[in-house]
């Protein structure tokens, strides 16, 4: 939805990996090629069914064979393309648990993530849920909430950028499903692989932390369309057309904390804003296709701006029709969220859709698990959401029902666990 960032329909195609996120890519590229050409590869550690593939075994497809590296500059799950299945889960440290217990937990989680992302078993007590499947682009991403620092005696290390988000007029937040000490994002292109990782993370938490909330989402499966294209959300709109791309010269500056940034443990990290945004689909679907396009400012069929061209054609905000009316309405979502209309504010959107059944009155509980990334939320999400609050045509068809902000440190180096520089610094 958004021209760049947006809380619900931003516009961006699936994100390509930046050079800095490609460390260790040779193995991933090899696995993807092997799956596509029919070669059988038993990866080190057993990426195929937890063991080297036996002679004559049917090779994994390209979907199952693709592996994302764990030890990279930026944590996995940020610059990779959208995955078919996702789980977002927040934990609170147990009573009495502190810095020591948190460090041990992050060490366990990091080891488990590394194994699972390589297509290996989680450990000696693996559930076998994902047996026979390859890595399937699995990623696990870990972050710290505002409350984590007081619980662990690390208040002096808490980033200013992690200050609580302001209130917004579209907020109808459930506090029980918001925030949390720790946050884990899981994504994969196979539902069983994603669930397997979720169970492993929950089991690893043991007595150190308890689940505060969990949300489950999905996207279109890779290969379901004739050619790669921008994803659609549950409103039927192309969602992500103007996402910033790693090829842009200021991408890292907008999305990642610089190596010289403060606090030092956040170098190469990013801040994730997580919002459960309910789409009021019954109201939305009463609109004609033309009215829906006016709300968004783009054609539903191909994502082109109402001012003309294709999905990637620059939007002409001044163009008028034969009656002299603006072709892209003044309150259109795509117009309001454009970076050049917001002092350059930009976010990298990487959402999942969700559907949690039907309410008692027959209303669908469905919408977007909105996840956006930025180097500083006060210069990314906050100004954009404030602008949307002041007159976005889409606002009457959505409701923000939960919210969280998490500091996601840079990727763990070989021999390190995620967050080690914070917890042992």
Oligomeric state, counting identical vs distinct chains: single chain
Alpha carbon gap, first and last residue: 41 Å
Query: What profile does the largest beta sheet have?
Result: 9 strands, antiparallel
Please tell me the overall pLDDT.
88
Return the string of H and E elements.
Answer: EHHEHEHEHEEHEHHHEEEHEH
State the secondary-structure class. Answer: alpha+beta
Short description:
The chain has 425 residues and is of the alpha+beta class. It contains 11 helices and 11 strands.
Q: What structural keywords apply?
A:
425 residues, nine-stranded antiparallel beta sheet, 11 helices, 11 strands, 21% helix, 18% strand
List the helices and strands and how they pair.
Blueprint (H helix, E strand, L loop, with lengths): L10 E2 L12 H13 L24 H4 L19 E9 L5 H19 L21 E7 H6 L30 E7 L2 H15 L3 E10 L21 E2 L9 H5 L14 E10 L1 H4 L4 H8 L36 H4 L11 E2 L2 E7 L5 E11 L6 H9 L8 E11 L11 H4 L2
Parallel strand pairs: 1-6
Antiparallel strand pairs: 2-4, 2-5, 3-4, 3-11, 7-10, 7-11, 8-10, 9-10
Helix pairs in contact: 3-5
């Amino acid at each position: 939805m958004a021209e760049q960032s947006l809380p619900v329909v931003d516009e961006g195609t699936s994100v390509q990996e930046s050079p800095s996120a490609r460390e260790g890519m040779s193995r991933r590229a090899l696995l993807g090629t092997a799956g596509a050409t029919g070669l059988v590869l038993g990866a080190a550690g057993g990426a195929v069914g937890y063991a080297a593939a036996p002679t004559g075994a049917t090779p994994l497809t390209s979907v199952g064979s693709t592996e994302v590296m764990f030890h990279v500059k930026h944590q996995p799950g940020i610059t990779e393309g959208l995955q078919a299945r996702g789980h977002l889960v927040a934990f609170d440290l147990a009573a009495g648990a502190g810095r020591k217990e948190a460090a041990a937990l992050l060490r366990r989680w990091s080891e488990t993530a590394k194994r699972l992302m390589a297509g290996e078993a989680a450990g000696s007590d693996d559930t076998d849920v994902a047996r026979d499947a390859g890595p399937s682009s699995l990623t696990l991403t870990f972050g710290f909430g505002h409350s984590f620092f007081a619980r662990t005696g690390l208040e002096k290390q808490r980033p200013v950028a992690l200050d609580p988000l302001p209130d917004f007029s579209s907020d109808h937040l459930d506090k029980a499903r918001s925030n949390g000490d720790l946050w884990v994002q899981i994504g994969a292109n196979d539902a069983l692989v994603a669930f397997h990782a979720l169970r492993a993370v929950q089991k690893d938490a043991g007595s150190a932390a308890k689940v505060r909330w969990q949300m489950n989402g999905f996207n279109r499966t890779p290969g379901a369309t004739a050619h790669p294209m921008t994803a659609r959300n549950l409103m039927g709109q192309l969602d992500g057309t103007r996402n910033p791309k790693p090829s842009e010269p200021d991408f890292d500056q907008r999305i990642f904390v610089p190596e010289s940034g403060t606090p030092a443990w956040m170098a190469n990290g990013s801040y994730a804003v997580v919002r459960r945004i309910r789409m009021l689909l019954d109201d939305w679907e009463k609109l004609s296709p033309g009215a829906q396009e006016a709300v968004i400012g783009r054609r539903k069929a191909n994502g082109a701006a109402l001012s003309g061209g294709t999905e990637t054609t620059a939007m002409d905000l001044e163009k008028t029709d034969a009656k002299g009316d603006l072709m892209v309405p003044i309150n259109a979502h795509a117009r309001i969220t454009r970076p050049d209309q917001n002092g350059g504010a930009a976010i990298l959107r990487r959402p999942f859709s969700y559907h949690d059944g039907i309410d008692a009155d027959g209303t669908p509980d469905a919408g977007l698990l909105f996840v956006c990334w930025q180097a500083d939320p006060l210069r990314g999400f906050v100004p954009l959401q404030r602008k949307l609050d002041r007159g976005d045509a889409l606002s009457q068809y959505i409701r923000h029902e939960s919210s969280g902000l998490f500091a996601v440190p840079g990727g763990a180096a070989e021999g390190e666990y995620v967050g080690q520089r914070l917890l042992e610094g």
